[in-house]
Every structure is written in C-alpha cells, then in structure tokens.
Amino acid sequence: MRTFVLALLVLLLPLPLLAQSTVLTTQERTRILAESLAAAPHCPSVQKLRSVGADVDSLLTNIALNKTIFLEVRLKAVDCLGYFSNKRSRQVLNSMITDPTFDSPFQQAALLSLARAFGEEAFPLLRSYTDNTDAKTRVVAVKALGIIGSARTRSYLMGLAQSETDPMVQQAIAEALK
C-alpha cells in the first residue's frame, strides 16, 4: 500500500510540492526524486531541483550512491549535482573523480558536473585528466574544459591540440574551441 501511495505521489506531485511535505521522510523524498529523474528525459532545471528543498544536493547524492537504483538515474543525479557549487557537491564530485571504486561513467559524469558547478576552479583537476591513458576520459576532460571556456582553458586546449594523437580527442578539442 505504501509503495502504491508513493507511486501515486510521483505522478501527482510536482517537484515543488515535494519540498512542502513534512510527512515524507528523507528516504521517501529520495525515492520520489529518483522516480522523477527516471521519468524525465534529462536533468530538471535548477529552479525545479531547488524547489525540492534546501537538501536537494543531499538527495541527489543519495541517489547517485544508491546501487539499487538504475545506472542511468544515478548518472542523471551526478549530472544534476553540476547545478550546485557548494562544499557538499564539491566533495561528492571530487570523490567520484578520484576514488577508484567509482566506475568510469561516474568519473566522466562528475568531470562534466564539476566543470559546470565550479568553472575555473576546476581547471587544475580537469587538466590532469587530459593526460589519462583512457581516450574516452581524455575526451570528457576536454569537453569539461570546453564548458569552462575561459581564456586559460582555451590556451591550454590549443597547446593540447598540438600534442594529442588520438583522433577522438583531437575532434573533442576542436569542438571545445568553437
């Protein structure tokens, strides 16, 4: 019965009303947010996410770390963390990038989110991943630097274009410089 009520809430409650409910536990709110992310084609707008409540970054973190939730939903939660430039999201994203227990898809999603959330501050870490042995990780690091788009990142990417040999990474560099 409780599952039915929660499923009904997901269908009937828009995200802003989720925050107003004092009856729902954090676990229930996390589950509802996860189901909302699963139903959405991409991460909801920052306004909708913030309307869930002040702890939405914690709820997104709960979703990202919960191995019982579908991978696509967990990765979407990591993507959504890119809207929050606070200490908690920085710690979670840095952990996903540097902790070897996180698989490559999490590392790559966290690289992009870190660039979106922290911009130029993320440059040193992102730059270090352009030397990674995995070409896909280098492509994502280049895309993340492209998101920042500062004069420093553009200059770095121009220099990288001269030394990079992988065609996928070269193409990513060209796209990031556009």
Keywords:
178 residues; disordered N terminus; 12 helices; single chain; mainly alpha
Could you explain the architecture of this structure?
It is a single chain. Helix 3 crosses helix 6, helix 8 packs parallel to helix 10 and helix 10 runs parallel beside helix 12 (167-177). The protein is elongated, with a radius of gyration of 18 Å. It has helices at 2-12, 15-20, 26-39, 46-51, 56-65, 71-80, 87-98, 104-118, 123-128, 135-148, 151-163, 167-177. The chain is an all-alpha fold and 178 residues long.
Task: Give a topology summary.
Elements lengths: L1 H11 L2 H6 L5 H14 L6 H6 L4 H10 L5 H10 L6 H12 L5 H15 L4 H6 L6 H14 L2 H13 L3 H11 L1
The assigned structural class equals: mainly alpha
Low-confidence stretches: 1-13
Order of helices and strands: HHHHHHHHHHHH
Gross morphology = elongated
Percent in strands? under 5%
Average pLDDT, all residues: 88
Separation of the first and last Cα atoms: 54 Å
What level of helicity do the residues show?
over 70%
Number of helices, counting only DSSP H or I runs of 4 residues or more: 12
Question: What is the chains' assembly state?
Answer: single chain
Q: Count the beta strands.
A: 0
Largest sheet: none
* Rg from alpha-carbon coordinates: 18 Å
What's this, in brief?
By secondary structure, the protein is mostly helical.
